[in-house]
Design goal:
751 residues, alpha+beta, 7-stranded mixed sheet, two-stranded antiparallel sheet
Amino acid sequence: MRLMKQQLPPISQTEQDALDSGNVWWDSELFSGKPDWCRLHDLSISKLSVEEQAFLDGPVEVLCQRLDDWQITHELYDLPPDIWAFLKQNRFFGMIIPKEYGGLGFSALAHSQVVMKVSSRSATAAVTVMVPNSLGPGELLMKYGTQAQKNYYLPRLADGRDIPCFGLTGPEAGSDASSIPDSGVVCRQDFNGEKAVLGMRLNWEKRYITLGPVATVLGLAFQLYDPDHLLGDKEELGISVALIPTNHPGVEIGTRHFALDIPFQNGPNYGHDVFIPMDWLIGGQAQAGKGWRMLVECLGEGRGISLPALSTGAAKVASRYTGAYARVRQQFGMPIGYFEGVEEPLARILGNTYLMDAGRILTATAIDQGQRPAVITALLKYQLTERMRRLVNDAMDISGGAGICMGPSNYLARAYQSIPIGITVEGANILTRSLIVFGQGAMRCHPWLLKEIKAVQADDVEAFDTAFMGHVKHIFSNLGRSVWYGLSNAKLVAHGSPMTREYYRHLSRLSSQFALLADYAALSLGGTLKRRERLSGRMADILANLYLCSAVLKHFEEQGEPEADVPLMAYACKLTIHRAQQAMLAAFHNLPHPWLAKILRAVMFPYGKPFSPPNDQLIHQVARLALEPSATRDRLTDGIYITNDPADRMGRIEDALHKTLAAAELEKQLRKLMKTGKLEAHTTDAAIVEAKDKGLLDKFSVERLLAARKAVANAIRVDDFPAEYFRKGEAKKPLPNPPLIRGGSQEREMG
């Protein structure tokens, strides 16, 4: 125990709060080396209630129909006033607020579904909807607020009378949010006609605050000090959280940030010597100094819902409409989706969309069932936003010129521009991957390590003996399984159906190897493991891919194991299993005592690398799923806004797909007539006219061919602008001042 005490790195109070917040769930099963697949199989996946589905089919559908993203992002630099009013009227900002306070009381899955559907039309609208329902005063009030605070604020937040924002990040405290310099000093001051009111004098500077420019109530995080001991013996109380009306004297709401041409309301705010009474702390005086724990718990759940939903919405849009575009767009006399070079990125888009949706639904289910899986929500956020980055890039590559030309018809460019926003916020991905997922997961999810640490901290030798011997048995158990699974490739693992059993075996093998590798890293590096961020990142990649593969298998089973979906399931499983293997091998190369690491690698992988990425045949099968309407395509893209309207930027591509497929046989017939010399025309349009004139095609066939040609021309067109448009400076028009919202009314002053 003394030796371990020497090796342990110091754990700060903020780190301890992070460790104590939330709980472990399926991540602990993967860390155990012996996951209980029955636990996953028996889990009842969340379903939307009748009321939640009606909201998606009603107000959300209407909202999506009314959203004009070009107008929002290029002309108004804001949501139109009627959209703001619609969001308030239909209580979009109160989805998570209980019904007794006037909210909708929706589940985590419903919250996710709403954000995903709205994001398929406008990232600006999606961010506006999701922020009040994730990290914000609403969630903090529900969990920690006093009854008086709940009674006053929650109904106002639910119906939009108050627009919330939350001030955490500042110029000197971004990823290291626990080191915020903003301060509050406990004091007494006259307030609202009362003498010597107990309160705080605040000074702060915040930036990157979403909804800040239009907010009417500000949630503020700051360090609280009590130099005069008005609250007790401690002078430094720690991070605290207060609610402050933005029209309160001294509060200064700044102008706006402009994040990559995506004009959701975001900006700085400031305060200098702002006095607030003590009962403006969320939870009142009893919660003074407990703000970091509050924030960590709320952030953990929020980032597992909102950004994964937004990322999955972008993925589903890319899958459905880029696939359709690849079928109707022809080069060299054939659809571009038939080229092997295009099939590869197209399969990546579909395969990643499938696993992203699976991870999103499984995590939302866990939250709905009362779990607070802090490690899983962190890895889900970073994995899904990173996969969104890759697949939107793939969609841009397939779309070519249609993807890069900005205009009202472009459905991809704004998603492409907005990618770094989701990757940066709610915990930058570099930080999340290299410090949080494995850094916290190794202690929280390991069955014995945290118990050993607590015993060491408490100088409890008896508890340490129990935990230490349990840890030794755990190591040898995983060593035995790793040897056996390595030699047999886990052939005796019998879970799953014939379609999924292979992947359960691979996961069982990798889980035991991951648990053994994590123990080797901890034992060989000791306290320095905390600073080995590249190694920690690789371990995080292993855990993340094991979790996502588990989610894929559960998703496939929940949908009834449709045979048509097997290529998607197989692609997603092979992709994640191969990436977990590669991350594990990379970790071996960077561990101490290389000779021992080589022995361990030989034990785990006695026949070399057992797992390969998706092969060309599977890539072909998956890519073809994107090119034609099918039940599989509909399941994959379920939950986004779908339209066949030829006047819509996405509907025109869907319209062209259906008309192209309806005329496919006639196209073949026409090409045959041209090749055999029965038609002399050199262009398709001229050949159609000639075939009609010569009676080789009837009127109905000609109309169908012409309709398909017109629809394709509409689908592949790009926007262009007259020279006067740019000379007049429309594209460089200065931003209007943000709308000022007070008391539920909106007023705009043009700059």
